[in-house]
Amino acid sequence: MLATLHQERFADQAPAAVYATLLDEGTYLCSPRTMYRLLAAQHEVRERRNQLRHPTYRKPELLATGPNQVWSWDITKLLGPAKWVYYYLYVVLDIFSRYAVGWMIADQQNAALAQRLLHQSLQKQGIGPGQLTIHADRGAAMTAKPLAWLLADLGVTKTHTRPYTSTDNPYSEAHFKTLKYRPGFPDCFGSPEDALAFCRQFFSWYNREHRHSGIGFLTPEALHYGRAPAVTATRQAALQAAYAAHPERFVHKPPRPPAIPTAAWINPPPQNRSTPSASYTNLDEELSQNR
Description:
By secondary structure, the chain is an alpha/beta fold. It folds into two domains: 2-41, no CATH class; 62-291, Ribonuclease H-like superfamily/Ribonuclease H (Nucleotidyltransferase, domain 5), CATH 3.30.420.10. The protein has twelve helices and seven strands. A five-stranded mixed sheet has the order 4-3-2-5-6, with helices on both faces. A two-stranded antiparallel sheet has the order 1-7.
């Protein structure tokens, strides 16, 4: 049967066609299924067309236990005054503190602009070699070689999301939701100046006033710059005074303020995902919250 299948006239034909041809000639050797089994044993069954081989992308697992260890950055569109007119908001976010370390409005997605924004943000935060990992998706601006060379020169590690996996970049996605669900966010912006004015007000509020649910209702600025213990101590004193005055109002135990977070993950390993902790940030839940 193998010798028959190896004949020149059958070399490019499927077993079912070979089977039918032989029957037309009055010959039966075996069924098409047996032909497939014999060919498979000889490693001669494969897809004849050239198939695209997708590379295997490793799931990013990033941990930050303090500010300026892992940053996440992304670009979102802001609708302009007419159809197909957009302004692009670049935002660099510290995943531990949620502090926006840098942002920019532009009329296009451009690797050179991203390179300038990241360079300025790194200088402003005083980032040293080997200190920081920057995480982003796989957009053209994020994967551009000039940006990769800049980060390599500065000793910054870069990571990327897996294709079509938005949950690999949850902090930036959640931040953009906070922006676009903010009261006063317009249906469209009349000009780049309008977008810039709105974002100046938003980022001032977000960094300095927004009590963020993912970080114990601290402001990003307080956590980023080390003022969280003082804020928590003030909260604890207020709660202790309330408990001393009216202990009957607190049925189970003396009240405590929300804990200061100790870690922030992108894709925590299974053992961390299953370990409950008051100070652990659940990234999947944060994506669905409307702050």
